[in-house]
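Project standup — Tuesday

K.O.: blocked on the structure for the chain from last sprint. Re-posting the sequence here as requested.
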Amino acid sequence: MQRYALLGEKLSHSYSPIIHKKIFEAYNLDADYTLLECNKEELEGIINSLREGKYHGFNVTIPYKIEVMKYLDEISAEARAIGSVNTIAYKNGKVVGYNTDYFGFYNELINYNIPVKNKDCYILGTGGASLALYKALIDLGGNVKYVSRSPKNDNTITYDELNNRNIDLLVNATPVGMYPNIDKSPVDTMIAKRSKYVVDIIFNPKRTKLLLDSASSYNGLLMLVGQAVKAEEIWQDKKYPEDINKLLKEIEAII
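H.V.: unblocked you, prediction finished:
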């Protein structure tokens, strides 16, 4: 049996095992996917288990997408350009890091026909996930800025500065509003309402307070499904045999 896992600090909210089980069925694989909560000090030992054959691949989530990079033998071109890793595979005797968040988010924007080219786009948060979102928006021709409580460069503005900006697209890459803290939002209601498009990469709950305030339904589930499919394609060395939207509908019917 092939064994895969999600590495993170707090994983009780994750739908990843459900999604990957469905993907295993499509591939007709004898495989298992588990949640592996760990602390930072355990990461190196867990990643080494790939070399020992105990696991066949990992996904990585908050807060380790940057931290894991120092334990890898190689980093793919897209992950190096982004600056974070969310998928790890064992290839030709080496532990290799990839970023499939990029593909998941890019495809979500395309799937929902969200206009990006020459639009003013703002990403809330500067963590590992935000780096992949930034590259996807740049590649689609957006004018992109990060929003942070502690800006560190000219490409980042404060939340207060957001009050005076035109917002064509607002993307939440923070955990604010995630279950169980569903009454929280990273921005006030007025900012949410005047943003032309809002995407929240949180997927539990399906509609965060930010999405409710903005009357948007673009959550992170399609991105999650898309990045999972891309991760499996890397692990299995072959294309996913079914339509991603069909898989999304199956997942939505379960959760």
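K.O.: great, moving the ticket to review. Residues 113-217 form a domain with the Rossmann fold fold (CATH 3.40.50.720). The mean pLDDT is 95.
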